[in-house]
Design goal:
By secondary structure, this protein is of the alpha+beta class. The chain has one domain. 23% of the residues lie in helices and 28% in strands. The protein has eight helices and 13 strands. Strands 1-9-10-12-8 form a five-stranded antiparallel β-sheet. Strands 2-6-4-3 form a four-stranded antiparallel β-sheet, with helices on one face. A hairpin with a 2-residue loop joins strand 3 and strand 4. The longest helix has 19 residues. It is globular and about 55 Å long. The two termini are 38 Å apart. The N terminus is likely disordered.
């Protein structure tokens, strides 16, 4: 994108990527529901390579409309009580529901199922029950995120008759690790408006909540802005899990799962600047001739004292046993 614009915010599971470019293949750029839910509920999505499993009965949306995607899809959006997802495939939706970041073909974590899971695209409007939306205001941020994921799992089971099982595969991953004894991170001392007050205000106004477009407006999470090939990340009260999750959805890591092995448990404020590169043309160790910023794999240890280390690790994957076209609205 030539002009400066928001690419991803609030640390994310897959960008919704709101109609702005994220440098990722189209297959994976059509919907980031959990990112939008994060905007709704003021939460930052926490990260690990673990799949989200239900520990009890699944919560459900009050009502959901599922239609074939419009030839001219609108950007996805969300309000505190409603989520709209445009141009999403069922495989994307499964990834959303179980907290699986974008992965490349060799590291795919949602396996099997009929071909239409990737071929058919849908527009979805789902309303969160009022009592559940109110109850979520009293939950932790991680639990709010989990509830949205579980409602998506319920939607898939009810409307697509989805049945899955889980296995473990050894995959190539990136481990986010500390590169030097004193990493260039400063623990956050910021305090931000409670999610309850921001949600109540949004509900009163009945409007969709917009993601911040400027670093100074960011209260909690991760915001990345692009200016041509330059990328600039701003983080406020972000955990290393948040950072690992963001990297897991970023094209330059090649779709590998990213696991947090830093051992750092705090919340941090930091910034990171790098020059984007083509995956096909540049390896992690290659350099781009740029005066303004180094490539990501160089910037990360230089500026934050962290690095992404290639490794092999057991990772939980999802195998689809059954999926049907959606039932009537």
């Amino acid at each position: 994108m030539g002009a400066r614009g928001v690419v991803q915010s609030m640390s994310g599971n897959r960008a919704a990527r709101y109609g702005v470019s994220c440098g990722m293949p189209f297959k994976k750029s059509c919907a980031r529901l959990l990112l939008l839910a994060a905007a709704c509920f003021g939460l930052a999505i926490s990260a690990s390579a673990q799949i989200i499993h239900a520990s009890g009965p699944l919560p459900s949306f009050e009502v959901a409309t599922i239609k074939p995607a419009s030839p001219q899809p609108l950007p996805s959006s969300a309000s505190p009580a409603e989520v709209r997802i445009s141009n999403v495939t069922v495989r994307n939706l499964v990834e959303q529901a179980y907290g699986v970041p974008w992965t490349s073909a060799e590291n795919e974590r949602v396996l099997g199922g009929p071909a239409w899971l990737d071929a058919n695209h849908y527009d979805i409007v789902a309303r969160i029950p009022g009592d559940l939306a109110e109850a979520q205001q009293k939950l932790s941020r991680d639990e709010q995120k989990r509830q949205i994921s579980l409602m998506l799992q319920s939607l898939l089971a009810e409307r697509f008759h989805l049945k899955v099982h889980f296995e473990t595969k050894v995959l190539t991953v990136y481990a986010l690790v500390v590169a030097r004894p004193k990493p260039g991170l400063v623990e956050s001392t910021r305090h931000f408006e409670s999610s309850e007050s921001s949600e109540s205000s949004a509900q009163a106004n009945d409007v969709a909540i917009r993601l911040p477009s400027k670093p100074e407006d960011l209260r909690h999470g991760i915001l990345v802005l692009y200016n041509g090939q330059m990328a600039e990340m701003t983080a406020r009260q972000a955990s290393m899990d948040d950072l690992a999750r963001w990297f897991a959805g970023y094209s330059e890591v090649g779709g590998r799962p990213v696991v947090n092995e830093t051992g750092l448990s705090g919340l941090y404020d930091f910034s990171l600047r790098w020059m984007r590169q083509s995956l096909a043309g540049t390896s992690p160790g290659g350099l781009l001739d740029a005066a303004d910023a180094p490539p990501l794999f160089t910037a990360l240890p230089e500026q934050l004292g962290l690095r992404l280390k290639s490794d092999k690790a057991p990772v939980e994957v999802i195998l689809i046993d059954r999926a049907d076209p959606p039932t009537d609205n």
